Amino acid sequence: MPGPGIAQPDFLPALKFRLDNIEVLETGGFGPSSIVTAPNPFTLRMDLGFDGPLTLLLFGLVLTAEHHAQHIESGAVFALPVAGGIVVIPPALAPASHLTISSGPYATVVGVAAPGVPLGTGTYRITTHIHPPPPIAGIVSAFYDGLIVQVVS
Q1: Residue 68 main-chain phi, psi, to 5 deg
Q2: pLDDT digit string, tens, across residues 73-115
């Protein structure tokens, strides 16, 4: 079974796009952790990678990243607000490049909250997807579906 981050194209050794990892960084926390203590806000940090000599073909490409959350206890699904999505422009580096992109901060509250931000006490599955503009939308894409965040009080 593939890992939680899937991306294309995957044409190594020529070109590979990767969504390697997403970490939760709690404001005032001790480092990356998927457990956030309310009412502390948190940010999401994504690691994107570009490998191969054709990496330069992605230079200037505008990718949009979006996060969607599902509250495990209630099943409610909602988008984490990112004004216009996160715009990612791969650097003109070759043959291997790496970008770290952060979004947030996202607020949390003690107790039950309506679906959306702030996130109330509970457990959330967060799925991130990255979309490029046409005409390459069918060629370059990625998603990450392995992040669980628990908000505790």
Answers
A1: -125, 140
A2: 999 999 998 755 566 666 665 556 778 888 889 999 999 888 8
d(Cα 43, Cα 28) in Å, to the nearest integer? 11
Strand ranges (E), the chain: 5-8, 10-11, 15-26, 35-37, 42-51, 63-71, 77-80, 86-88, 96-106, 122-131, 141-152
Q: 56 φ, ψ to 5°?
A: -60, -25
User: CATH for 5-152?
Assistant: 2.60.40
For the segment 9-18, the average pLDDT, to the nearest whole number, is 88
Q: Are strands 122-131 and 141-152 parallel, antiparallel or unpaired?
A: antiparallel
CB 82 within 8 A of CB 65: yes
What's the length of the chain?
Answer: 153
**Structure pTM?**
0.86
